[in-house]
Amino acid sequence: MTEAFWANWLVWMAAALILGILEVMVPGSIFLGFAIGAALTGLVLLLLGLIPAALTAPVIAVLFAALSFAAWVGLRQRFRMKGRDVKRIDDDIND
């Protein structure tokens, strides 16, 4: 595939849609960060589409990886479980 394929913002939006659908179908929150990263990459490519010389495939891949990681960290901070410690019960309810 050519560099023009990866620099097309519609490709990244389609990938975000596919990853979002896959997130719903597969148990666990694995693909949501990648879907958000792909959507943000498509948005960046749409906004910076006037500068095609700087948008090579490795640069776009690094951009996607960085945005996906940032989305994953943000989702982890927002939806983390509170009180992840093991709950210890010392009292018996029958006493």
Question: What features would you describe in this structure?
Answer:
The chain has 95 residues and is mainly α. It has one domain (3-78). 62% of the residues lie in helices and 0% in strands. The chain has four helices and no strands. It has helices spanning 3-6, 9-25, 32-47, 57-78. Helix 2 packs antiparallel against helix 3 (32-47) and helix 3 (32-47) packs across helix 4. The longest helix is centred in the last third of the chain and has 22 residues, at 57-78. The chain starts with a helix and ends in a 17-residue tail after the last helix. The mean pLDDT is 84.
Give a nutshell description of this structure.
The protein has 95 residues and is an all-alpha fold.
